[in-house]
Amino acid sequence: MTKITRRNALFSGLAVSAASCSKGPSNESPDESASGVFAHGVASGDPGPNSAVIWTRISANEAAPGSSATIIWELAANETFNNIIAKGETLTGASRDWTVKTLLTDLEPGTVYYYRFRSGDQTSPVGRTRTLPAGAIDSARFAVLSCTNFPFGYFNVYDQIAQRDDIDAVIHLGDYIYEYGRDGYGGATGAALGREHEPAHEIITLDDYRRRHAQYKADPSSQAMHAAHAVIAIWDDHEVSNNSWKDGAENHQPETEGEWVTRRRAALQAYYEWMPVREPAAAPEAFFRSYSYGDLLTLCAIETRLMARARQFEYSEIVRDLKTGADVEHFKTEILWDESREMLGSAQTDYLSRTIRQSVNDGQPWRLIANQIIMAKVITPDLNPHMSEEEIDALQATWDQGRAFVEVSKLGLPTNFDAWDGYPAARERFYEMVRDAGGDGMIVVTGDTHTWWANDLTDRNGKRRGVELGTHSVTSPSPYGNNFLDGKGGQYTALTAHENEDVRYISGEDHGYIDLEIGHETATARYMAVDTVESRDYSAFEKVAFTIERADGAAKFTNS
């Protein structure tokens, strides 16, 4: 096991100190965030072969008076800016919360650029971005992560990624922020660590969402990571509200929190203001894109929450109707497999089909899918023989679905109805679309569960369709952690792996990210972990690694 300590690691490349407002990168520790006009740092993302988005924000109380301000951006080939190759101006103001987002164009493919912003006599930290490559390339490397819940701990995973200069892009799979107030999920931990959410209440309005994004962007490790790498981001549910679907969310109560469409509109406006992403020309929910990496792969970033998703099943709702074996069979074969239950929708499916066909026609060996929720089939093991009534009561006290979950676990139903398992007909349509487009070599990267996974992807008939790599969280706790289920989380994890053939590896321990390196013949996924998120002093290590190859018309793990 290779260990890297936070104290003795040297920053490589542009491992920027977010505290620095100088013209170049720094080797100082990013324990303090930026200050002054550019207190939220800089960021870049959504790269193309000839373009990239760069972002910053000016603090309104530091900005020029009035409703708008003009910000100068500069682009250079190195961090010293002794040869500025492009510059321009961008207008911002209160209408977009003083955020600044510029699309750079006419860039060279596969090239590293450095950028910064100026407002009056103040200069932002320096950021580094990278365009997509064109033509023949040997490999591409990504840092894959998700679930950055501020009160649950320090963003040490961000800090680790900021120290690397061998990453082509960071793929953030969603839950970039969390919507809860201090009395909700993570509140007690945040109070103990001094990392409580702002504002203190659950976020609902546009001002609420803006303030929450501002808090996350003020984190020094977040600023260092964003300054060091271009980010390809998708959202999951917590950017709006927990377990969201096209017409609502589990954590949205219209009676007290207003109309869902109003809350969703506010959340997405703040997201587009505060994230270095291109905004869709169609509806704001239509947030799906693709990225071509030379002759190697196409990355498809999909949307599974707000465009088309049907409402999720809840254990507490279905358990009432599952009284007999016939009831269970009817639910499994008819209700769960209802063809009308959508996930992606026709517009997104058509786009993905065209994109994958183009990738195949271009001779690329790999298709990489950035996906929010577990795609593999995962059936719940029977927990009833392993839990006492007191333990079930304790679970129910922390999760309102707990008792129903344990009761239904004996029926062989999916572990997570919020995942693709709750939409098996939609998953089958996705597999068929990929197959019809000729898209073998499919690797799916997944967030959401705060758990490490290595899964085979198989269709209804057991045919291999690809592999899935699930990343743990940056901070959020895992339902497969050893302390889950009143200390029986490790046993639950072992039972899940034992009773699900498609699950090759599962662990709820140790936060981290996936270091995914893809070459023409094989891909290697290294699960990189940190030993704590409760202190800024931490160690990082490689937890486990997997090699993937293309064989028999699909990607597969080499030990299969």
Give an overview of the whole structure.
By secondary structure, the chain is α+β, with helices and mostly antiparallel strands. It has a single domain, classed as Alkaline phosphatase D (PhoD) (Purple Acid Phosphatase, chain A, domain 2, 4-Layer Sandwich). Helices cover 23% and strands 26% of the residues. The chain contains 14 helices and 25 strands. It has helices spanning 156-162, 187-193, 206-217, 220-228, 254-257, 260-274, 315-318, 325-335, 346-361, 389-398, 402-408, 424-436, 484-487, 489-499; strands at residues 3-5, 42-45, 52-57, 68-76, 84-93, 99-104, 112-119, 122-123, 127-130, 139-145, 169-172, 230-233, 244-245, 248-249, 289-293, 297-301, 366-371, 442-446, 452-458, 464-470, 503-507, 512-519, 522-530, 539-551, 554-557. The strands form 4 sheets. Strands 1, 2, 3, 6, 10, 11, 12, 22, 23, 24 and 25 form an 11-stranded mixed β-sheet that branches. A 7-stranded mixed β-sheet has the order 15-16-17-18-20-19-21. Strands 4, 5, 7, 8 and 9 form a 5-stranded antiparallel β-sheet that branches. β15 and β16 form a beta hairpin. α1 packs parallel to α4, α3 (206-217) packs parallel to α6 (260-274) and α9 runs parallel beside α12 (424-436). It is globular. The two termini are 24 Å apart.
